[in-house]
Amino acid sequence: MSILRSLGGICFFMKDSEGRFMGGNNAEFSKLGVASEHDLVGKTDTDFFPPNFILLYRKDDLKVMRSGQPVLNRVEPVLNPDGSFSWHITSKYPLRNSQGVSIGIMGVMRDFDGSSMPWNLQRPFMRVMEYIDKNFHEEILMKHLAEATGLSLSQFERRFTEVFGQTPSRFLVRYRLTKASHLLVSSDKTIGTVAVECGFCDHSHFTRSFLGMFGITPGQYRRIKR
Asked: Which one in 102, 160, 170, 222 has a CA-CA gap of 20 to 30 Å to 207?
């Protein structure tokens, strides 16, 4: 555990079954804007992150605790204080007591564009991240993303899935839904307008996708989080 706490440039954290932080390292303290572990322990994601991200984080936490299986190398957009997004690579693992019972999770997170060996396997896809960030509100074809990496379409889809554990089309939907969740909370735009601005072809497609990822409809999400 002391090795994990001393990792340079990598955020390490632990949470209990209720989502309360149990500890972390200096990189995590800096990321969350706290001075020490004393200022972190007992707090939850609601103390540090925008409400539109908390459901996603909690969903992954519960999945890891209930299944006992880690979530590995999840590439996620993270909202910065200035409203912009940056990309992070997150892995979460079950945390068990001496009887083998799941009592929480521990995880590591690092900046995508600050990665180095062995993380540089993902770096060719940085152009894909930039393309998605600039064009998510428009139609994006997989061939456009493949062209950004210089790979053929089949090579791109295979490599992307190997590196990120999800297909590029699934990743694109997750990104659009993350953007949409932010707009639902931070603006008074209609749900239909949010859907169109985040690249969904129609209201029903947006609602089905949102329900599949968050477990509630866009309207319910807006009412809960406001």
From this structure: 160
Task: Identify the CA nearest to 127 among candidates 110, 108, 151, 162.
Answer: 151
Q: Residue 7 pLDDT more than 90? A: no
In degrees, rounded to 5, the angle at the alpha carbon of residue 146 between the alpha carbons of residues 137 and 167 is 75
Q: Taking the C-alpha atoms of 222, 197, 164 and 94 in order, what is their torsion angle to the nearest 10 degrees?
A: -10
Q: How far apart are the first and last CA of the chain?
A: 38
Could you give the CA distance from residue 192 to residue 219 in angstroms, rounded to a whole number? 11
* Count of beta carbons in the 10 Å neighbourhood of residue 20: 16
65 token code pair:
């605790």
Separation CA 183–CA 222 (nearest Å): 9
Which residue matches tokens 């992954």? 60
Number of residues assigned to the chain:
226
Unique residue bearing structure tokens 């969904």? 200
- Span 108-158, pLDDT tens digits: 988 765 554 344 556 667 788 888 888 999 999 999 899 888 889 999 999
Q: Are 65 and 54 in contact (CB under 8 A)?
A: no
Strand, coil or helix: 87: strand
> Checking phi first, is residue 26 left (phi over 0); if not, alpha (psi -120 to 50) or beta?
alpha
